[in-house]
Phosphate transport system permease protein PstA
Amino acid sequence: MNNWFKSGSPWIWMTAGSVSVALIAVLGLVALIAWRGLSFFWPADIYEFHFSDTERQTIIGEIYERERIPVTRLSDAGVDISQIDGEFVTRYLVKIGNRELVPLDFTWVLEPNVVRLETPKDLVVLERSRNGNFYGYLHDVLENGESVVTGGADIKVELRKRMERALELRNEAESISKGPIARINYELEQLRLDRRRLELNNSYTEAAEAEIQAQEEALRAEYREVEQTLFAVRAESERDGVIMIDMRGEEVRMSMNMVLDATWSNDMNILQKWGYFFSQIGKFLTEDPRESNTEGGVFPAIFGTVFMVLLMSVIVTPFGVIAAIYLHEYAGKNSITKLIRIAVINLAGVPSIVYGVFGLGFFVYMVGGTLDQIFYPESLPNPTFGTPGVLWSALTLAILTLPVVIVSTEEGLSRIPSAVREGSLALGATKAETIWRIILPMASPAIMTGLILAVARAAGEVAPLMLVGVVKSAPALPVDGNFPFLHLDRKFMHLGFHIYDVGFQSPNVEAARPLVYATSFLLITVIVGLNLTAIGVRNRLREKFRALEH
């Protein structure tokens, strides 16, 4: 036994066991998040609850959660338990939607109070642009207030046809709002700034004013034409309507331009359910959020996260590599260099919120405020760069991840044999040429390793971003069709902050809970995707420059 311990085998097995347990825990956590998140997109059965009491006779909705609770807990809450036998009772959390008709779109249902539970095949769920889902029975489809379900016409086919028409018109209206109207408003704002700039430069003349007014009149005339087109499209989208029978048995009329999708999940076969599942995931990835981020998609958050991480990578990589080259190749081996290395290592342990406070004070207020006074005085007192934005977020996270890149790059430089440097210098190359043509290519895998670690940390940070650029809802992406096309001063959405906002700031906690898991799994997927891309680049570089190591 003593020889076995002295051989080191126990420590090898212990290390392997610890790594295995950690790997299983991580994979189990990811699997749990994926299961809870992806199950949100699966078409759930729609139930019709029938009760014996007179307060509510029927409820229609999805069962979100089942749980068994002690009867004493209900008694303490003031619930009548005279009709309940046993120590435990099952209750259901039911999403009933129809938000404009009921105070809450979730309710608890006790199993003993249910006299009949059904899943009728003709129950339909209407996904709407506001007020959440609507659960009920499809009664009629209207065109200009008149029924179109005549002569044996299939009501489902009529609904689908007119719903697709309304969606096309709705998308056309949205493209007009985000395209020509947004462009005209942007150009009008630029003309206002041009007028203010001329006033500040004391070059405001009647000729300049006449030119600006002519441009404004042309833009306003174009705006009126586009606005008329927009109003016409919106009026066309409101032509059709639908009549539903809700859980109260009453008719509810709504405009077709509110309806995004209609699903008869109780009447779907397994192939239709899988098709619906993937289509819902596609909508989640490509659409904008709705209803205070509790519905719709997360495309702006995906775009903001990836864009900010790429911008941060472009900033941190050259600075980190230059700093590592100086420390390893040029700096002397003295106490000052040791002190700098200790400072760099200690920076990695600073809480991220401290970087956020630094970024807000230095980048936003000091640097951004100075840029506004020098280059954008016509916009003041409204700040351009003197307010949180994607540029300051990228710079703040670049400083946060800089120690990782420096340490990783310096480790890669230290593994390159001195004979390589000496051979290059002996052949007549300068030190700068040696570093640029030989040392850096050989150290590129280590640089990519540092970048991978930086991306993994930066993509998941939330606390500093709350101070320097991220917002709950961004009206426009940092990239659009207006000059200069790349707007680094704009605020942006981020998947990490989106998770925090939906999970802790949402007015509808129960509806938001599945989105928290779905967005968390998406954030993990984005980080893994970025890391795999960087790992692929690192492996190709390693194979390319492997011959230089021998």
About this structure: The chain has three domains: 46-119, 141-268, 300-548.
